[in-house]
Each structure stands twice: as structure tokens, then as C-alpha cells.
Write a structure and sequence with these properties.
alpha/beta; 6-stranded mixed β-sheet; 9 strands; 173 residues; 3-stranded antiparallel β-sheet; 35% strand
């Protein structure tokens, strides 16, 4: 069994806090959550249930990793289908690592002219940052360890683990 870094209970508490903060920040308004597939699907689902506003969601998919290593390039695989113009948008990511993906997505989504664009990440690994970017809503700061579970994978495995775990045999960088 992999080592648990963050338990499902810790995750649930923090996701509820982020949901409350988004509810407060956008009080009386609607929000559109955009989840980055596949990793953010569980975080987005739990977060959406914690937001006490009119909230809808859409998904976007990018590829930023070749086999196991970052290529340094980000490719759009699936674009959003809902109009973003004049919407309050929250981009929902599983992990903010190098910053390449979030920087790419923010630039792309801003071209759609949302009213507001905020970013939420469950995990933030600032030690790996290549580009200077920070999320507006952060679940947990984590060390430079390879994590799986709660949507995060290793070669498409382990996404269904309810906790955030450290992979015992971390892939080589």
C-alpha cells in the first residue's frame, strides 16, 4: 500500500474551505468551473458540491507530459464547450507543478474574455516551478514527491485512490 501524504478527511476539510472561499468571493454571482482532465475530475466534483452559488462546469484537456516526463510543451486536446465571455471562471487543476500548464491555460482562457478568471489547485509543488505563477486558491503545499490518488495518476493507474499518496517507486526525472 502506498504511503498516505494527505488523507481523504484532510482533503474533504480543505476542499470545503476552498468552496466557502469561492462562495464568499463571488457572493450573489454565478461561477463556471473549468476542470482540467483527467486529474482534476475528483477535486472539481467535490469542490462544486461545496460552492453555495449557481455553479456550472465544463472540462478542458491538455497534454503536457510525454510518457513520464514533462516535454516542456503544452498541447490542447479538448477545448471548453461553454461560452466564457463575461463569466466568472475558476480554472480547477489537480496540481500546480512547473507552472507550464496553468500559464498556457490562463493565457488561452483569457482570450475568451471572461469577466474574472481565478485558479484553484488542490496541490501546489512550488519547488518545481519553472514559470512564476501562483494559484488563487490552494489546497495544500506539498514537497517534491511523486503523488498519486484522488484523480492523480501514474501511467493512468491509481486515480481512484481516495487519499493523496506517495508512489513508492517514483519515476526518474
Amino acid at each position: 500500500m502506498p504511503e498516505i501524504l494527505l488523507s481523504r478527511d484532510q482533503i474533504a476539510v480543505r476542499v470545503a474551505e476552498i468552496g466557502q472561499q469561492i462562495t464568499t468571493d463571488f457572493a450573489g454571482q454565478s461561477v463556471l468551473l473549468i476542470g482540467v482532465l483527467k486529474g482534476a475530475c475528483m477535486f472539481l466534483g467535490d469542490l462544486a458540491r461545496q460552492i453555495q452559488l449557481d455553479a456550472t462546469f465544463d472540462f478542458i484537456a491538455v497534454r503536457s507530459y510525454g510518457d513520464r516526463h514533462s516535454t516542456g510543451e503544452v498541447q490542447l486536446i479538448k477545448d471548453v464547450t461553454m461560452p466564457l465571455r463575461n463569466q466568472n471562471v475558476v480554472l480547477v487543476e489537480d496540481i500546480l507543478d512547473t507552472g507550464l500548464t496553468m500559464t498556457f491555460l490562463k493565457k488561452m482562457l483569457m482570450a475568451h474574455q471572461p469577466r474574472v478568471l481565478k485558479t484553484a489547485t488542490l496541490l501546489d509543488k512550488p519547488s518545481r516551478r519553472v514559470l512564476p505563477i501562483e494559484a488563487d486558491y490552494v489546497g495544500f503545499l506539498i514537497p517534491d514527491r511523486f503523488v498519486i490518488g484522488y484523480g492523480l495518476d501514474y501511467v493512468e493507474r491509481y486515480r481512484n485512490l481516495p487519499d493523496i499518496c506517495v508512489l513508492a517507486e517514483a519515476p526518474r526525472k
